[in-house]
Structures are given as C-alpha cells and as structure tokens.
Design a protein that fits this description.
The chain has 436 residues and is of the alpha/beta class. 31% of the residues lie in helices and 19% in strands. It has an 8-stranded parallel beta barrel with strand order 3-4-7-8-9-10-13-14, surrounded by 8 helices. Strands 5-6-12-11 form a 4-stranded antiparallel sheet, with no helix packed on it. A two-stranded antiparallel ribbon has the order 1-2. The longest helix has 16 residues. The mean pLDDT is 96. Bound molecules: flavin mononucleotide and iron/sulfur cluster (2 copies).
C-alpha cells in the first residue's frame, strides 16, 4: 500500500488531508472529532482580537441538484477569546502529538504579531499560518486580503511574524489579485517556509427578487462575501500551478479550495501541492468524508504503481505551459459511440449553435449505424473533416464516454505560435497555422 504520509516544509502528517481554518476548526471538541475521524492535520480557525459576527452569514449556490456547489460567507475570524483558543490549542496538541496543528493568526501591529506568534508557539503548535486572505470585514480594518493584495505589506508583515516564530510559517494568500505569483514571490522574499492557497473569492451568490437584498440578509442589507466550495476549485488549481511552476516562488504549497473528493486532492498534488486543506466539504458532509479521501487516494496511488505521494506531487506541472507553446498542428476530432448514444441530440444543438456546424442528423441505415431508440428518428454523425476538435459536444453529452475526442495524425509537423513567429521573422517558415 502506498505511503500517504505528507511533508509540508518539514511539518509531517500521517496523510495529506488537513482541516482548513474555518468553522470546523473552531474548538478543541471539533479538533478531537476531526482527528478521531482520521484527518492528518488541522489549521485552527483564525485567532486575533475577538470580533463579533452577524446573522445570517452564509449563502449557497445550488446548481441542478448539487447543493453548495458554491458557498459564500461573510463570517470573520474567531469570535472566541484568544485565551480560550490558545488554551484549547494546547489541549489538542497534548492529546494528538502525531497530528500537526497549525495556528492561523491575524492581528495588526508588529507588537501584536510578536505577542500572538509567541502565545501560539507556547501551546506547542507545529506551525503558524498568516491569514492574508479574508476578503470581507477584516480587510476593511487593514488586515486579511488587503495585506495579500499588497506585495510590500506581505513582505513586511511576514517578516514581523518570522521575527518571533520558531516553527514553520505558512502564508495563506487571497485569490483576489491579478497575478498570484507576484504575491507568492513576496512571501518567498520575506523568508516564510510555505504558502497556503487559496482563501475565498469575493462574491455575491444571489439576490432575493422580492426584497432586493442578496443573501445572506443582515437586517435587510448584505455585503459581498468569500466564495468557496467545488465552484472555486478551478481557480485554486490554476493558482497552485502558477506558484509551483515559478522558480522564484520555490516554496512548498498547501492546496485549498473546493476539495471534496480524493480526485480533487490528487489533482492539487499533481499540480504541485504537498497537501490539501478542506473546509466547505466538511461543513456539508462532516468529518467522516476523510475515510473516502484516504481510501480513494490510496487506491489510486496503488493503481498507478506510485510508492508514495512524492511520486504524484508536481507530476502535472510541466504539462501546463503558455498558450504560445502549444502545438497549433495537433488535431483531435469528436467521435460518437453509436452503441451507447441515447439520441438526445444535445451534441447536435451545441455544435450547430455554439460551435462549427459539423454534426449532421442522418438516417442511420445508409451510414451503417444502429437505429435510434425512437423509431424513425435521425442520429448524430460528426463530419470529421470539418470538426475543429473544440470538445463542446463531448462536454454537453450526458452519457459518459459516448463522445471521444480522438487524436488524428496529420502530415504537419509540430508548430507552436512562438515557433511560427520566430520562423516568420527569420524567413525560415514555410507552413502557415491551420485555419478552420
Ligand atoms: C464559513 C467559512 C469561514 C472561514 N474562515 C476562515 C478563517 O477564519 N481563516 C482562514 O484562513 N480561512 C477561512 N476560511 C477559508 C477556508 O479556510 C478556505 O480557504 C476556503 O473556504 C476554500 O476552501 P473550501 O473550498 O474547502 O472551503 C473560511 C471559509 C468558510 C467557508
Ligand atoms: S468537437 Fe466541436 S466542432 Fe467538433 S463536433 Fe464537437 S462541437 Fe462540433
Ligand atoms: S449528446 Fe451524446 S447521447 Fe446525446 S445524441 Fe449526442 S452523442 Fe448521443
């Protein structure tokens, strides 16, 4: 069985699944329950000067039958006293010496950072996470995402924490920036040991069309919140990759944002994360999901013949490149499996109105195709010569595997836009890029 132990900047955990800073990591009671269920580590709900919360504070986006596909919150950092938080952190560390516990902190002045880092370290925590990501409430007070949006502030405040820290310091970044790599490089310059990303994405999930107030409704008003859950995974994956691929960042990464299944976790690891953190999926389904995460990841590693997480970490990083380096001459076409097709014709409509009009509805018999399930109904057939291989039909098709995107050999050699431009300038190019 593959070795699931993970190592983030020297912080070792029995598996790569950590509870992220948030409501499930608010008390010792919850931490005990998380570790009993099998979570590998936990980042405590952010501790700072206690701050009141509003009611209500969450809203969700349901897509089809999937509730909480996106999850928005306007909750702030811990509303409990630092004394209670630090006391319980120490209690959890005493009971679970083999599980890393990280104190997430957010305060304002240099003196307060020194004080809070020291108090956290006295509890026996394995690391400190600096919350530079909260995009609501705290940023209006000069903390959270306003720090993560200002590279100079990231560098200064990280260095304040490092002045007092004797355990690894993780900096948790906000995705609400133009280029995450700029923020990540300033974490590196400051000398922190690792980066966690992402915190939540600024959002308004919906508007009540009777009251005209978005949810969550706080006495008739609302405020933008932070978006999390499955909907943000693509944003988080891109940012993890961007940091993993940048040689100037060069720091271990903890991947956060939309992890709900072992596949999500494996994708984060493949794109360069050393572990993952989970918040929304626990709020939705409870700590018990870790069993499925561990079993699924373990079975996947075994099926690939990977001995440990190290064999997976970063494996997909080199396969993401700039668009200008992609091969313009690589060709793929859509091919329909007529035995599994249910003749819903969604692919036809999508290609006809949203793509390149190269799926025909044909009488099956003359083409040697099986008849439609409904008598006399035409069936879809791709005109492969005209298909540009955009993928749309295979994405809309409701039958898994029914439309395959098949690579096609051509007589054109590989040619990227970058090579095309260089060749044009040098007068050595004889090909032109393919046109639809
Ligand atoms: C209700 C709620 C409260 C959160 N509170 C914190 C917090 O106190 N500190 C922090 O660093 N992140 C906080 N987060 C952000 C999460 O740690 C995480 O970065 C984000 O939710 C994305 O992960 P997910 O999709 O697994 O939820 C909170 C998230 C939610 C949903
Ligand atoms: S891949 Fe795109 S162009 Fe080709 S058949 Fe499908 S929708 Fe049409
Ligand atoms: S979308 Fe899929 S199932 Fe529906 S007609 Fe097209 S190939 Fe068949």
């Amino acid at each position: 069985m593959a070795d699931l132990t993970s190592n983030l900047a020297g912080i070792k955990s029995p598996n790569p699944f950590w509870v992220a800073s948030g409501p499930p990591a608010n008390t010792a009671y919850q931490a005990h329950r998380a570790f009993e269920a099998g979570w590998g580590g936990l980042v405590w709900k952010t501790i700072g000067d206690p701050t009141p919360n509003v009611a209500s504070r969450y809203s969700g986006l349901t897509i089809g039958s999937r509730r909480m596909a996106g999850f928005n919150n306007i909750e702030l950092i811990s509303d409990r006293s630092p004394e209670a938080n630090f006391r319980e952190l120490a209690e959890v560390k005493r009971r679970w010496p083999d599980r890393p516990v990280i104190a997430s902190l957010m305060v304002d002045t240099r003196e307060r950072w020194h004080e809070f880092v020291n108090r956290a370290i006295d509890t026996g925590v394995d690391g400190i996470e600096l919350n530079f990501g909260c995009p609501h409430g705290m940023c209006e007070r000069g903390m959270g995402s306003v720090v993560g949006q200002d590279p100079a502030a990231i560098e200064t405040i990280t260095s304040w924490a490092l002045e007092a820290a004797s355990v690894p310091v993780l900096v948790k970044l906000t995705p609400n920036v133009t280029d995450i790599v700029v923020a990540a490089r300033s974490v590196r310059r400051a000398g922190a040991q690792a980066i966690s990303l992402i915190n939540t994405v600024r959002s308004i999930t919906n508007v009540n069309l009777d009251t005209f107030t978005p949810e969550p409704d706080v006495g008739g008003k609302s405020s933008h919140g932070g978006y999390a859950g499955p909907a943000v995974k693509p944003i988080a994956l891109q940012m993890v990759h961007a940091c993993a691929a940048d040689p100037e960042v060069g720091l271990p990464l903890s991947g956060v944002g939309g992890v709900a299944t072992w596949r999500d976790a494996a994708e984060f690891l493949a794109l360069g994360a050393a572990n993952v953190q989970v918040c929304t999926a626990i709020m939705h389904h409870g700590f018990g999901i870790v069993e499925h995460l561990i079993d699924g990841l373990s079975a996947y590693l075994d099926s690939k013949g990977f001995a440990s997480l190290r064999d997976l970490e970063g494996r997909a990083v080199p396969n993401v490149t700039d668009w200008s380096r992609l091969d313009l001459n690589a060709k793929r076409v859509a091919r329909i499996d007529h035995d599994t097709c249910i003749h819903c014709n969604l692919c036809y409509v999508a290609c006809e109105d949203g793509a390149y009009q190269c799926i025909d509805l044909v009488d099956p018999a003359p083409h040697g195709l099986p008849p439609a399930r409904v008598a006399d109904r035409p069936v879809p057939l791709v005109r492969e010569a005209d298909c540009v291989g955009c993928n749309l039909c295979s994405i809309v098709c409701p039958v898994d595997g029914c439309i395959e995107m098949v690579p096609i050999e051509t007589d054109r050699s590989a040619l990227s836009w970058e090579q095309y431009q260089t060749g044009l300038a040098a007068g050595t190019i004889s090909q032109i890029p393919p046109q639809p």
